[in-house]
Specification:
heterodimer; A: mainly alpha; 3 helical TM bundles of succinate and fumarate reductases; 5 helices; B: 3 helical TM bundles of succinate and fumarate reductases; 4 helices; elongated
Chain lengths: ~130, ~130
Amino acid sequence: MSLQSPLGRVLGLGSAKDGTGHWWAQRVSAVALIPLTLWFMFSLLSLPALDYATVRVWLSFPMSGFLALLSVAVLTYHSYLGTTEVIEDYVHSAGMKVLSLMVLRFAHVLVGGAGVFAIMRVAFGS
Amino acid sequence: MPARARPTSPHLGIYQWQIGNSLSILHRLTGLALSLGLPALCYWLVSLAGGEESYAQAAKLFASPVGLFGLVGWTFAFLYHLLNGVRHLFWDAGYGFERTQRHASGWFVVAGSMALTLSVWGLIWAGHRA
């Protein structure tokens, strides 16, 4: 009989070796994305046009740039968590799994980093 | 040994399709589609930072038939994933597990995401013509 509590076990040693951490991070980022993505969609919809000058002016406002940066960052994180889960579910060979998880992580840092950097370039006007 | 066979996990080959498992699969598919949309969104932002020329190039790409198909598809995928995601959060909190509640919320998500997709693109179309 183990003296470890059920909570201790699930925090440390779930079947995926990381307990509830991944599941909880997915819920937290999902909740954060509800206002962020809705703000993003309604902002774009309320612009008079989506031409270069209009979008550029909109994204240079500090509040727009800040919220857009948060949106891209949390979207990237949530996408990383979700696609990781899919790989873990369907890729069974250990080598392919490690490789695809690594490619997935690199791709998300690359894409998310490029998006965040682009927003900063517009915000700081360079 | 149990006296009778115990239930086993669903076997997709003989599983009877119903709204519950269909929407669950669609949730994962729309999530994957949205993950593919992330590079498109970031490409659009990078093109905006790059200047007028690169932005015009990106805008042309998004206005092409393939581009428009992607944008309408991502709009639906986003709205579905959003509404069904909220449905999942209610379940996580312990609400809405009854059969009638599950079915009602499922059909609400299907009708809602389709109606909202049509509204969003109706608004875009109306603005484009004005």
